[in-house]
Amino acid sequence: MSTSPPSLPSPLHNEIVQAEDIKSDESSDQDANKIAILSISNDEPLVTRRELWSYYLYCNGDNGVGPLGYTQTLFQGLATAAGYDPVAGPGSSCLATTASGQCVVPWGSGTKSVSSVVLIANGISFAIMTAIFTTIGSAADYGTFGRWLLFAVTVVCWAAQYACMALTTPNRWSLAMVLYIIGFVSYGATLVFFVALFPRLARNTPHARQLREKFENGEISTEVYEQEESLEKNRISNISTAHSNVGYVATLLLNLTLLLPMTNNPKVDNYVLVLVNTYWVALGIWWFILQEPRPGPSLPEGEHYTTIGWKQIWAALKTYKHLPYTFMYLFSFFLLADGLNTTGTLVSICQNNKFSFSFLQNTYLGLSQAITSTISTLAFWYIQRYWKISTKKMFVVTNVVTILIPLWGMIGIWTEKLGFHNVWEFWAYNIVFGLFQAPYYAFSQTMMAELSPPGFDNMFFGLFGLSNRASSMVGPNVIQAIIDKTGNNWQGFPFLFALCTAASMVIWFGVDVTKGRRDAVKWAAEQRSHTH
Fold first, then answer.
1. Are 401 and 453 in contact (CB under 8 A)?
2. Radius of gyration of the chain (CA)
3. Which of 137, 193, 265, 322 could be a cystine partner for 150, CB 3.0 to 4.6 Å?
């Protein structure tokens, strides 16, 4: 019985046939892998210094301070000001000194807690991201569509952030929710489509080309080539992550020039969002000007950008037998990202409540996270480069903290002495998050780059985006239901701890990156050999 995977509708993907059985002996495997590596296209423009710097500058501006941090704080603050204490009844204030700590706003025919509303907004955002990534994500592999798609979602995010100037009174909390969702969705899309560019950049740097020439001339072995190419991917990934954190620090310091002298101005938070966004516009625009053209193949005749994505994803999913480790990682990361993203949202809700939605306090906390993130990203990269440690081992180290964060939050169910109830805990959380989670993001995307077939970057990073950002349709909805039922934010942490732990175990013990990378390269070579 044939086990050939289905066809993919593109010039590169027209026919996918089952790869010929490779003999299990080591020499045959190396020969097959060498042929696969040599089949990677070498015709794309060389990455220039200014192009690479424009990539880093975009990362610097796209640091998430506005769409992830301040916009949520503004939205949650307005909703809390507009709501009432359900214990005291309608007409009461959630901000009164005698308030019970609970707060509800009108929702449909009844009410819903503000924490639940924030989580619902996140769930809606991730659902929209799912639709975007599945519908047009992999279409970015064709022609120049990816270039214009990134530009479009970037402009939408910029517009949503500037529109937050209208959020000045509590009765506009529903508008704040809409703008938060638009900003969050478009920001998440910029991350996915921008990160999808770096494997192609890494393959076309001068160092990568030199490695390729040495490999073709027989000066280095397959193992050395793979290790050095992996380090090149990690170099760009870690430096771009470091730039994002540098931008985080710079943005927060810049914000203090408004937050400190204008403390009593009721619109200072809105002005800060405008400043944050302008910083991104000033740095991010250069990528669209200096990016070298690396178009993909033309869209197949009879296909459309809005439908080809679903066809490709369906066909790609059916290739799981040929790319087992790639899909094992995608599935596990789906659960892990769901747990981590929702944990971050839940801790932010607790933090905003603790600091009374203060932009100034959140700026100080953000600075502690941003500074440690920058230091740790560069330190982890230095450690990896010096000792030539594999991407997976570096990822596992950072991943341990992912599990410990919701575990710590669980303690808060039984006592108020620990478990995100105290000011010092939020300082500790931001510092620890910076030390380990910034490198975690860098290594997670590098693992995806290593497990993605060359030339199919947007398709598989679209699936990665689905696993990363869009996965969190599940977590926020489960947690908001738990909080709605119990009235206790901390009751959500046990579910998140179980989710992160289960996903981590599969990645730690089930994903073989070395075999997965070779499977991916061979699979991509098969597609090219059957389309030319």
1. no
2. 24
3. 193
